[in-house]
Amino acid sequence: MLKEALASASVVAAQLADTARVEALARALEAEPRHVALTVARGSSDHAASYFAALTMSRIGIPVATLPMSIATLQQAPLRVRSQFALAFSQSGRSPDLVATIKALREAGALTATMVNVAGSPLAEAAGMELPLLAGPELSVAATKSYIAMLAMSEQLVGFWQRDAAVIDAVRALPDALDRAGTLDWSKAVEELRDVKQMIVIGRGPGLAVAQEAALKLKETSGIQAEAFSSAEVRH
Questions:
Q1: Helix (H, G, I), strand (E, B), or coil: what is residue 175?
Q2: Contact at 8 Å (CB) between 203 and 210?
Q3: How far apart are CA 127 and CA 122, in angstroms?
């Protein structure tokens, strides 16, 4: 898990070496008005979707909602999404309900795309537009580099969509920042967390998605009952 987390810098650098696909999607989003965007994901990928949602709502001004997959699969609801944007997030791109949902959205007239780590996956085929995460095989049970890759790709998409050079420049500086983060000494946290059974992980805005993922990692790896909350909710 540590080895894969430390590989995140090279993953983001690989993404930045060729931004043609994400720029093409940004141009497609600009081509006509989008009144709403939908995300489709679960687990760590859903936390990455929350990050994309926070960025898109705050910087583009378009409301973003998470679509429960059962709406499209079990309930087969009539989806009124023509010309709207739907984005799926996945590591493997093989979950049948995820594939079926994005397929239904595309058939209903939505502009569909996916951020996915496995090239040529069923999800990529169903979406029609693929943003490869380029994280490579992820062997750790707790996903690390693919999650970070989704955050970086979200920043790129919103930056190109908004035509914000400052955002793109910040993403281009990310590999160096990730390398520096990998050299930090976190050993003091071990003693602080050793006997912890419950924890609140706090974030706000895009940081809430990071808090959600941190809480999940603490559950998965350490058996700590960690829950993420917005700092505004905790203050309340």
A1: helix
A2: yes
A3: 9
Gap between the Cα atoms of 225 and 199, Å rounded: 6
Q: What pLDDT digit, counting tens, does each position of 117-136 carry?
A: 998 999 999 999 999 999 99
Is CATH 3.40.50.10490 the classification given to domain 185-236? yes
Is the pTM of the predicted complex or chain greater than 0.85? yes
> Quick check: 133 and 121 in contact, CB under 8 A?
no
Total Cβ atoms within 10 A of residue 11? 23
Domain 2-184 in CATH 3.40.50.10490? The answer is: yes
Q: Cβ(65)–Cβ(196) under 8 Å? A: no
CATH topology match: 2-184 vs 185-236? yes
pLDDT digits (tens, 9 = 90+) for 65-83: 999 999 999 999 999 999 9
How far is it, in rounded angstroms, from Cα 79 to Cα 222? 40
In angstroms, the CA 125 to CA 103 distance is 9
Is residue 201 a contact partner of residue 226, using CB atoms and an 8 Å limit? yes
DSSP labels, 89-117: EESSS--HHHHHHHHHHHHTT-EEEEEES
What are the residue boundaries of the structural domains of the chain, listed by start? 2-184, 185-236
Please give the radius of gyration of the chain, using alpha carbons only, rounded to the nearest integer: 18
